[in-house]
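In response to reviewer comment 3 from the previous cycle, which asked for concrete evidence that the modeling workflow produces usable outputs, we include below a single protein chain processed end to end. The sequence was submitted unchanged, and the resulting structure tokens are shown without manual editing.
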Amino acid sequence: MKKTISVFSYLLFALLACSVLCFNVSAAEKADMVQNLRAAVNSTSCTLSWDRVKNCDGYRIYLVKDGGREILKTLNNNSTVSFCKEDLRPNTDYTFLVRAYVLEDGKKYFGKPSEELTVKTKLSAPSSLKAQAASLSSVTVSWKAVKGAEKYQLFMCPTGESAYKKLCETDKLSFTAENLSGITGYKFRVRAKRSDNSSALSKTYVFYTVPQKVTGIKTSAQSGSRVKISWKKTSPVSWYSIYATDKKTDKCRYIGKTTDTSYSFQGDRSKKTYYFSVRPVIENDRQSLRGSFSGRFTGTTGKLTVSLEKSKLRKGEYTDMLASSAEKYLRLSSSDSGVIKAVGKKQVRAVSTGTATLTVSDGKTASRLKVTVTAPIFNYMSCVYDVTNEKMIFGNRMNDRCYPASITKLITALVATKHMSLNSTITVGNELNMVEPLSSTCGIQRGEKFRLGDLLYGLLLPSGGDAAYTIAVNCARKVSGNPNMGYVEAKNYFVSMMNSYMKSIGATGTHCVNPHGYPVSGHYSTVHDLLLVARQVLKNPTLSKVTSTYGKYVTALTGKGRYWTTTNGLIVPYGSRYSPYAHGMKTGTVDDYYTGIISAATNNKHTIITVVIGCESYGARYTATHKLYNYYL
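The workflow returned the following structure tokens.
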């Protein structure tokens, strides 16, 4: 019985195996062999196509390499009978095959592979065609070498036509097309070739035969040390390049270009001979094709012209001199040097009242200007500086010693922000013992802590002498590396930093004794130096913002808050001394009979700095500043 069951089981297993084998064979037979595999190639891709297999569910494409097959793509339908393989190397052999498959029970059953198809990608098309040279009847065209190429074919066609003519087949990388029409555009294309391969044609490049030489040249002297050059038009042309030199034996240098048939050249001196040449240029395909030089010709500049921005000045005012000759040639002299003084070679300053004749010469010709100087606006130590154009406008007694008073606190702020971050913690200590009687203060107390950026408002708005000492002592201890330095020693250390800083910005007429400006012997400055301080403040975004602030609520790190307002009446809204143009900076007061102010003001994007020192009252400094605004802003 057991033997019978065993034999039966064996027969059943054999029958099942046979049925499965028959099924597989049947499934495979449903996927026919792909026929007529073909390809279209270029230099970097190959597009395969084949005849559609009716009894299949899709196709798989293979790349045959290194004795194996790499699957490139499986197409899950039988209606798509093409595939493009990209990113191939030029001039390289590739072998492909395709198999169809049928899908049963979720499995793919592949038919026989198609016949293998080997193709060679084309050579790369030549690129970067250039017109190396051009003349009235020829153009020399060059191109980059193509890897694997043995020869190149060059084709040409006049612009406006479509039929290209083969010019040559060469193993060189350039060719000169000759017997061409002058001033005409030609289209060029190149193909790379070898015995078993060729590239597609390159893209089209257009080059021109160059225009004719410029003729009919004339020159004429113009006023203002200029020479006008003119010539006859050549056509077509994109522009004319102008070349010049002032040496007979030197090569002309490029000086400019124009699309007109004339050019006005500014010489650097009157009655001076220059040598010129003109060259026509055609621009095409981002290249400039230059015609021949016209040949050298001469032209002579006209007379020296000179003018002053203002011929009527007030004492202390500056004015610019506008001259047609270069500065290096200019010589200034005055019939009365006590009235007008030269500042460099391009600016003069009125130093006293009266009338003078200013003579300006460049060694070839001379020009005379009459200048009248009237009384100054006022006699205070003062100045006006044009920030926008970086030049002096007005200055009176700028180098006289003066008491800077609380304007000194701007120096303290500049030194502190140079050596400490705005987030540095400033601790108020026993340095408050040094605050002088009747000194202006901001009301800080021992033991309080502030950010430097906050305490600057206490220093510069209410003009706190207590804040000046506290900032100075904390900064000195940090910079010296000695946190236990005594407050008197620290104050002196900081004052030495102030004096060093002033010398570094060119303020050599200043000497500081304290950080707040309380008037004591040996503490002095000049309007010139205070102007340099104001310029540094404007360049410092933090201090520029602080000094232009009317009022600021500040909370100490230890918790107490207070509101500080400015002493600068120019920026107090609705005040009698308010100016809509002012945006800072700082007042300084010695007593009721000696006051001063630095201010910055802007009108229509034009910014000036004013300094007024030595006014006889609080109101006088504002009246003087408003006068300066009215005259110079």
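Confidence is low (pLDDT under 50) at residues 1-5, 14-28. We consider this sufficient to address the reviewer's concern, and the full set will be provided in the supplementary archive.
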